Amino acid sequence: MEIVMSILAGILFTTGIYNMLQKQMLRIIIGTALVSHGAHLFILTMGELKRGKPPVLSDEIANYSDPLPQALILTSIVISFGVTSLLLVLAYRASKENGTDNMEKLRGNEND
Amino acid sequence: MISNLAVLPIVIPLIAGVIAILIHRKLTIVRRFAQILTVVNTIVVAYVLFYVSQNGAVVLEAGDWMAPFGIVLVADLLSVVLVFTTNIIALACVFYAPKSLSDQQEEFYFYTFYFLLISGVSGAFITGDLFNLFVFFEVLLMASYGLIVLGGEKVQLRESIKYVLINLFSSMLFVTTIAFLYSVVGTVNMAQIAQRVGEVEQTGVLTAIGILLFFVFGTKAALFPLYYWLPKPYIAPNPVVSALFGALLTKVGIYSLLRVFSIIFVHKSDITHELFIWIAALTLIFGAIGAMSTNNIKLIVAYNIIPAVGFMLLGIGVYNSTGYAGTVYYLVSDMIIKAVLFLLVGAIAYLTGTSDLRKIRGLIHYYPFLGWLFFIAALVLAGIPPFSGFIGKLLLLQGAIESDQIIVALIGLAASLLILLSVMRIFIRGFWGEKDESIIPDKKAARSFALPVVFLLFFSILLGVGAEWFYPSIASIGDYLMNPETYIQSVLKE
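ok -> structure tokens follow
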């Protein structure tokens, strides 16, 4: 199971990075979202997916699932949603201001 | 109870930022409020600094969860010194801001973002947990995203998109690296990671993770070859914002490198630290060349961040206590002097209406005081004795020579000359020369710009002239960083 998830995270990373290398702003943003999903999936996988028991810590329980990765990705997901929505707003404003959503055309003079 | 001291430098600005949202339309009130709260926070941090220097590190286990399981905040001397410097800079910036920003920009939550930035930076310095380091990185980056587009000009929007993308990508790489590290050592607490990495003698996979972390922090700190994103976004926003960015953001990256590579990944220093030395040398060369390459005064100062980061990395790379002490000294001195330079350059751009060096001349006829302030700042930056830059560089070069890295030390000296030349160019071309009759002098504005700069320069000169007072504590930080055991024990209490 972990191997499958790792491969899935890898696919998310590659497609995300491919999209980030495009010129269209919206594609870049989708790319960043995919990369962050890949990273989150990866954290979850690294804590071992299925151990069969709830995360209860006491002396007689030896088999419990790891609660930490869930806590970590929860934080990370919130952050990445925030940044993605910010990026969408930013891209909308920038494309309105510049009249284009093509990153190549955003290059400008350093003194303006 | 006393361990709660560690959280105050994070919480006070956070609450202040939230209150600033509520009163953002009442400009006079929000200005006073921000200034008073910054002063209060600086006093609190000064007390924490005093307490830590007397009694050793303050460790707060949040919610009374024991150290490796819960979140810990570790206020040791290194982090508190940096938090104190952050607050000094914040203090100067908050008094500079009303003059420099338009009313509308101030209304649109400048003070909120400003407080959140301070909170995030302080948090990143104080946290003892690798994942929380990521979270505080995001807090300060979110605030910086807000600050960089404040005003919404074309150039700001253009540069901020690149800035956000680069930082977002490196943050995601950071999360991935934490995932790797978690799967290998099974913890995110820095002290426990250090302990476990020590137990297995830093196997190959751990060194690989260390290098990955180096890339993450290297992007944030703008090291060669990961610095290309830095100069232009840093000059797009208002000078106050540039000063905060230039003084604080890259330094958080360097601090993280210092922390991670002094307590966790220290067992294979022939691979990692050797790499740092050469990257430091390249960063020095390319940053100094970049600073020489442009006529935009803001861009010259922004490029000067890069060789400074190179110097600090050199101190981490040589891996001895003199080098570490030099890094810390240079870090503090450089935070202050970068803020000074950005504020001064911002003042020049405001008073002349341009940042193109070819269009500025003879400013010293109108603003002699500003001219001499700039001259002193340039000397501090280049490391001319008796100013603070000199002491830091001296320690760094001494550390490099102790580790037989003569070539890199020579590169550092050569880069210092180029740095001096690049800033002196602003002084020679902009301040000297014949009088420009078209300028209508604005003495009052110049005075209000000069005041915060004088305040910061005072600290800078104090650090240099009073080096004998500060050196023992800085040297003790150097020794402390060489012995990660102290840190591990103060956190895990074994």
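Residues 18 and 31 of chain A are 7 Å apart (CA to CA).
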